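Lab meeting tomorrow. Look over both lines:
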Amino acid sequence: MIDLNKQIAALSFPAEPAGLYEPISYTLASGGKRLRPQLALLGAQLFGGNEDEVLPVALALEVFHNFTLLHDDVMDKAAVRRGRPTVHVRWNENTAILSGDQMMIEAYRLLSRIREDKLSEVLRMFNDMATGICEGQQFDMDFEQRELVTLDEYLHMIRLKTALLLAYALRMGAYVAGADIDAQQHLFDYGIYLGLAFQIQDDLLDVYGDEKTFGKAIGGDILCGKKTYMLLTALQKADNITRNQLIDTLTSSSLSDSERITCVTAIYDKLCVRQAAEQTIADYTNQALLCLQALPDNEANSRLRDLANSLVCRIL
């Protein structure tokens, strides 16, 4: 198995201008699960593909993913990412935007290293993925300005913003390895279900997680009034009195941040929102695992099963 951390650390960028390239190196060195490149490699291994042939895709996906985080952190005004100050905090917002732009360019540069006969289709998939992610981010921002957002709308948004990247990472790896269309689709569907479960788990961790293991401040979504699975489920389950109490708490100017988080969490507890989220995560995980049954039964398949189970069992 290729050492992804070593490969990512080996990516080199010009020394000047330092204000453009240092934040890129800082971001890529901050760790993370390396989930997207790992999925691209597993997608290829599942069908007996050559890891070296899919490595440019894997690296491009990791650089692209981190580019989206730089811009997301600016839009969300997030102060911490993976336990370290975000780029716009350590430098400034303009630096985060421009360095993110350069990371997108670097992603396409890496992608161009794959075999010429595979490049056109991989570029099409990569572009479809990138467009979907941008659409998902726009929906996410639109939701901030809307009072009423349904759970179905939310699930569509996270399918675009989060799940597509996992699904296309797998599909591109499988395509480069020569998998047929049906097999690619099964793997793509696995990635979608896994991504949905992963994002809802992320919403859950934002409320009930351990800040040390989560890598971000707990309660950030509550303080931003962000439309998450937790909030939308609470609004759906609440009676009128509790719903008004929840809305008033989210918008109150008299409460401190810690008081607002405590009050909202208490309402979630009352409405059993945590249990509802855990059940939905389990359902999507099971659907993801069913998709693997139609694919080759080998070590890569086993690792994908283990991955699905481990991602949704992150420490709370």
About this structure: The chain is about 75% helix and 0% strand.
